């Protein structure tokens, strides 16, 4: 097969490309230039897609003896990921830019161009499995190494995209073995730190980064009953579950810490309250997609037993799930058997049955049986 290896400059993508070469395929390496500042340098394990990463990707391809190219997707990355990130925060939501990047850049823009150029598949260093059901249709599953499993951030992939995806690291039991293999193959990235945090905010200061891009508008901080507690300088600077930086100036009557329960951009209010009110047991998601053939319950609307995961490395929670409608558009409802803490609109909920990823949806609302926000609506 003719394979395009997406080379991030890290050890995982380098080993994935090496395995594709070893399997006898015609492999071409490509690094995606996503930064609008081509001189950007990497800081330890912070950031990715920098000029240093591009150089590491080139050296890995040189070692493997395969062609190497750099594709400039910086304009599309800015529009589809960076600008979207700002817009979501302006709307009071907490987005996941990694899912957005996988959806719009790595497995849409990249894959579309690869297919147009005659490639059969795209190889990446993600830890996830693409399997086939009894009818031969593709399914997305968790990787063998639960600690490194990345199926959550791939939950946005559609069936037609999975048909052209290959994840060679799917069955590797641990990251340590991948590093050892890279060392044996003479790949210079064997000991390179994993990247983390948001790649376009390499210093990790999301609040400061947003403050330069979103106009600060003072508003009120209220408690869960609507009682006015003070003023904030910009609602976008707060996220659900936040404890520090509230600047209320006086403690709660019971002396316990307050947490951000809701960010309400239309009213420019931040709602705070006790930690126990962060526990939610019902989620509603919008813009659902299916990772493979849709589950039969999508058509019937019946409840099914599934697992719900709301963060990349969080424990999944058992739930009853059904596909329905919200304001005339497709939606997903999940009634949790337990509870999840600090879930914010804008996060993605990925649905599983066993190891299989059914798909995902963007959380529109999270509900707690311990607190009814409608009472707050009446109070304010």
UniProtKB/TrEMBL annotation:
Residues binding ATP: 6-13, 32, 125
InterPro entries assigned: MnmA-like (IPR004506), MnmA-like_C (IPR046885), MnmA-like_central (IPR046884), MnmA-like_central_sf (IPR023382), Rossmann-like_a/b/a_fold (IPR014729)
MF-aspect GO terms: ATP binding; tRNA binding; tRNA-uridine 2-sulfurtransferase activity
Example GO BP: tRNA wobble position uridine thiolation
Domain of life: Bacteria
The tRNA-specific 2-thiouridylase MnmA-like central domain, residue ranges: 209-273
Domain tRNA-specific 2-thiouridylase MnmA-like C-terminal residues, every copy: 301-363
EC assignment: 2.8.1.13
Catalytic activity: S-sulfanyl-L-cysteinyl-[protein] + uridine(34) in tRNA + AH2 + ATP = 2-thiouridine(34) in tRNA + L-cysteinyl-[protein] + A + AMP + diphosphate + H(+)
Active site: 101 (nucleophile), 199 (cysteine persulfide intermediate)
Enzyme class of the recorded protein, top EC level: transferase
One term under GO cellular component: cytoplasm
Main location: cytoplasm
Classification via Gene3D superfamilies: Adenine nucleotide alpha hydrolases-like domains (2.30.30.280), HUPs (3.40.50.620), Translation factors (2.40.30.10)
Pfam families assigned to the protein according to its UniProt record, in alphabetical order: tRNA_Me_trans (PF03054), tRNA_Me_trans_C (PF20258), tRNA_Me_trans_M (PF20259)
Region (Interaction with tRNA): 148-150
Compartment(s): Cytoplasm
Functional description taken from the UniProt entry: Catalyzes the 2-thiolation of uridine at the wobble position (U34) of tRNA, leading to the formation of s(2)U34.
Family to which this protein belongs: Belongs to the MnmA/TRMU family.
Protein name as it appears in the record: tRNA-specific 2-thiouridylase MnmA
């Amino acid at each position: 097969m003719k394979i395009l290896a997406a080379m991030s400059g890290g050890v995982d993508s380098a080993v994935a490309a090496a395995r594709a070469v070893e399997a006898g395929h015609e492999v071409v390496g490509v690094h995606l230039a996503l930064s609008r500042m081509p001189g950007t340098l990497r800081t330890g394990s912070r950031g990715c897609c920098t000029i240093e990463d591009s150089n590491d990707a080139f050296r890995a391809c040189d070692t493997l003896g395969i062609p190497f190219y750099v594709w400039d997707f910086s304009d599309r990355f800015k529009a589809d990921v960076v600008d979207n990130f700002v817009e979501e925060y302006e709307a009071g939501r907490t987005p996941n830019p990694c899912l957005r990047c996988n959806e719009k850049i790595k497995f849409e823009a990249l894959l579309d161009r690869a297919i147009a150029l005659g490639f059969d598949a795209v190889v990446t260093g993600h830890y996830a499995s693409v399997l086939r059901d009894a009818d031969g249709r593709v399914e997305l599953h968790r990787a063998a190494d639960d600690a490194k499993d990345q199926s959550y951030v791939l939950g946005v992939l559609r069936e037609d995209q999975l048909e052209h995806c290959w994840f060679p690291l799917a069955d590797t039991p641990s990251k340590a073995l991948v590093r050892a293999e890279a060392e044996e193959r003479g790949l210079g990235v064997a000991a390179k730190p994993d990247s983390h945090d948001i790649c376009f905010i390499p210093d990790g200061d999301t609040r400061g980064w947003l403050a330069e891009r979103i106009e600060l508008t003072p508003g009120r901080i209220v408690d869960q009953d609507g009682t006015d507690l003070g003023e904030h300088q910009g609602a976008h600077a707060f996220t659900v579950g936040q404890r520090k930086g509230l600047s209320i100036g006086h403690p709660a009557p019971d002396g316990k810490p307050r947490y951000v329960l809701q960010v309400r951009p239309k009213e420019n209010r931040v709602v705070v309250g006790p930690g126990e009110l962060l526990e939610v047991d019902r989620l509603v998601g919008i813009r659902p997609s299916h990772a493979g053939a849709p589950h039969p319950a999508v058509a019937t609307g019946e409840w099914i037993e599934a697992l719900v995961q709301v963060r990349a490395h969080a424990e999944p929670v058992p739930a009853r799930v059904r596909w329905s409608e919200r304001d005339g558009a497709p939606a997903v409802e999940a009634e949790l058997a337990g509870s999840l803490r600090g879930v914010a609109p804008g996060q993605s909920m990925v649905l599983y049955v066993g190891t299989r990823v059914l798909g995902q949806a963007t959380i529109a609302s999270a509900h707690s049986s311990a607190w009814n926000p409608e009472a707050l609506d009446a109070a304010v």
